[in-house]
Amino acid sequence: MDNVQAGLLKVLMFWMLTTPHEFAHAWVAMKLGDDTPVLEGRVTLNPLAHVDWLGTVILPLLMSIMTGGFIGWGKPVNTNPHKLRWGLNGMALVALAGPGSNVIFAILLLAVAAHTGPGTANLCATAAELSLFLAIFNMIPVPPLDGSKLLLAARIPIFIYNELARFGFLLILIAMSATSLGTWMSRWSWDTTRAIYKLFV
Question: How many C-beta atoms surround the C-beta of residue 7 within 10 A?
Answer without folding.
Answer: 19
